[in-house]
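Example record for the data management plan.
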Amino acid sequence: MNYAFRAYDKKKKEWIHRGPFHLIGEFMAFGGLTNIPLEAWNDIDIMADVNLCYNTGQPAFVGDIFKDDRDNLYRIFEVEGGFAINTSAFPNTFYDDYPFPLCALSDEQTVSWFKCAAVYIGNIWDNPEMLINVKK
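Corresponding structural encoding:
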């Protein structure tokens, strides 16, 4: 399993590292985290690679927004025990939090559908206009 991440500074509204980066590899061993002050860590969103790729070969991360072959929007969430997507498709915007039912990104049927039908649209930080009630 590939444990990779990307990082976004919510306060500065910029990517620290678009990723993927490996915590033990290039960041911990080579000092990539040392240039970030301790008090700034509350403003950093570290998003995990979900170990799936879109049909273009691009890696999928938590916070990504994608569409299926019917142009329905979905978002990838990190939940207890792994990763999930919303089960209700959204027409053009959706809520930032997930009170709606989720579908695990670990079962073979969902993974197969994702690899074939998922087209990357953006993510929660580059495309905030797609989200309603974004938590700051």
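Summary line stored alongside the record: The longest strand covers residues 44-53.
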